[in-house]
Amino acid sequence: MSVDVGARLKEVRLQKNLSQRELAKRAGVTNSTISLIEQNRVSPSVSSLKKVLDGIPMQLQEFFALNVPEKKQVFYSADELPDLGHGEISLRLVGHNYPNRTLSVLSESYPAGSDTGAEMLTHEGQEGGVVIRGEIELTVDGDVRVLKAGEAYFFDSSLPHRFRNPGDETCEIVSANNPPSL
Q1: pTM metric for this prediction
Q2: Is residue 86 classed exposed, middle or buried when 0-12, 13-18 and 19+ CB atoms within 10 A define those classes?
Q3: How far apart (Å, rounded) are the C-alpha atoms in residues 66 and 82?
Q4: Per the CATH hierarchy, to which homologous superfamily does domain 5-65 belong?
Q5: CA dihedral sign of residues 110, 112, 114, 120
Q6: Arch. (CATH architecture) of 78-178
Q7: For 67-112, what is each residue's pLDDT tens digit?
């Protein structure tokens, strides 16, 4: 089992009500050293970590024995969103690695003329979304409507449905559904 030294150091520092600057001063290291360790941008040697922990003060064995909960990822950069789409359609999933996720949030992109296919989609759950840019033709259980930027939808996913971009520009949608994808 690997230990997230940076997250653990930050948690211990915060529990002791120490700023990065104060811990750095006490440990005789630079403020940037503490910051880089906490961000896991540098991996300290055992002697460097011991020097930092002496500023708390805390023993190495105590540091590694602490039960510090692993922090769940909250923020995601664009390159951390896996694409679940197919063909030209992009369905980028937010929070793919969040434990016990109960819904999916997607950033969807439908190029002009694209669609989810002639066969209607059906699956368990509910889904909803807001058109951010462009337009999308949504068919749900035989009802058809073209939604433009600012308009939205919400329906039971067990109803046959299909998405098609009839416009001449890319359509972007932010959506959510449950149960979660992947």
Answers
A1: 0.63
A2: exposed
A3: 34
A4: lambda repressor-like DNA-binding domains (1.10.260.40)
A5: positive
A6: Sandwich (2.60)
A7: 766 667 888 888 888 888 888 999 999 988 777 788 999 999 999 9
